[in-house]
Amino acid sequence: MNEEEKKKLKRMNESAFGWVTSISVSAVIAILTTILFRIILR
């Protein structure tokens, strides 16, 4: 495995991590808004 492949793999891992983070953040926000709406509309 040469340096170029290592860099490419590292970049892929970082972007995957970024995707996972943003997806979980948006999921948490969606859940929180749902809870808030239920409380408000009660």
Could you walk me through the main structural features you see in this protein, from its secondary elements to its overall organization?
There is one protein chain. The chain has 42 residues and is mainly α. It has one helix at 3-41. The protein is rod-shaped and about 60 Å long. The mean pLDDT is 93.
Give the low-pLDDT segments.
Answer: none
Overall body shape? rod-shaped
Terminal residue distance? 59 Å
| Count of extended strands | 0
State the share of residues found in helices, binned by percent.
Answer: over 70%
Q: Outline the biggest β-sheet.
A: none
**Secondary-structure content class:** mainly alpha
Measured by DSSP, the beta-strand proportion falls in: under 5%
> How would you state the average pLDDT, rounded?
93
Index terms:
42 residues; mainly alpha; 1 helix
Would you kindly provide a brief summary of this structure?
With 42 residues, the protein is an all-alpha fold. It is 93% helix and 0% strand.
